[in-house]
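Journal club side-thread
Mid-discussion, someone asked how the predicted structure for our own chain would compare to the paper's figures. Pasting it here so we can look after the session.
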Amino acid sequence: MRRVIGYLLAATLLGLASCERPAAPSSTPAPTAGSPVKPTPAPSAAKLVVGFSQIGAESAWRSANTASIKDEAARRGVDLKFSDAQGDQENQVRAIRSFIQQRVDAIAFAPKTEDGWQAVLEEAHKAGIPVILTDRLVKVDNPDLYTTFIGSDFVEEGRRAAEWLAKATSGNAVIAELQGTPGSAPAIDRKKGFEAEIAKHPGMSIIKSQSGNFERAKGKEVCEAFLRSPEGPKLTALYAHNDDMALGAIQAIESAGRRPGRDILIVSIDGVRDAFQAMLDGTLNCSVECNPLLGPQLFDTIERVKRGEKVPKHIQTEEGVYDQSRVTAEVVKARRY
């Protein structure tokens, strides 16, 4: 009986052994005694992570700029950390510091004004995070604190506006100017370019100039004050640093009983759809284009930087000058912003 039980036990053990799977061969040899064990490297992040701080939504141009950046990020599968500063530069600084803490791959932002960025850009530089400026430049002690600037030549935009007005008036115009946000790069440079060009024409002069903060309602309010002033009846032209202020000014001029586009010629900058419609309607005479659709250029640039490629310090956008003669209903309909 003992012999039978022994045979049965041996057969059972043999059957169990035959059911075991052999261990998969290891491609890495087991470490010998005393050798260091190398940790398994963490998988790299699949998505590019980008922090973007936007000024706000003060104009149709700015809204189109935001949409372009968000849409392009979604198309490429970029993890976009988007922050709307609602017109407050301190909110932008806080957003950039948050991006630094999150260790994003790149930071991009449209600065509200030129000054006030030195400290936070030094922090980003120290963290090794590339910074791309869009639309507007900053003033810093060390230009290496930002990688590149993507945007327009604002001085050239102002010069083009003045060149068109000089040609349209044969070099004779009494001008009111609606300036952009005080201290901002486009306000400073668009004024500089315009003044430099009209200086070539003794019959052209700016007799009223005030900020409308790039806002339609503010542009209307300031223009109303221009028209009520003693110099108001003398005005024959208006130069606005953006289309939204020009559109507000058109309302003010009509309310004052004068004909915008005829009694007062109007030239502005941006090239938004509403401005094109105003040109079609005959109330705006010319708009110098400032392209807001920077999303593709922005993410192309960030990808190049992350690959270690050298990029130009200023990447300029392609833009044109549109007056009433170039605008049709089909052109208005085709505008993407």
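Post-session note: Confidence is low (pLDDT under 50) at residues 1-45.
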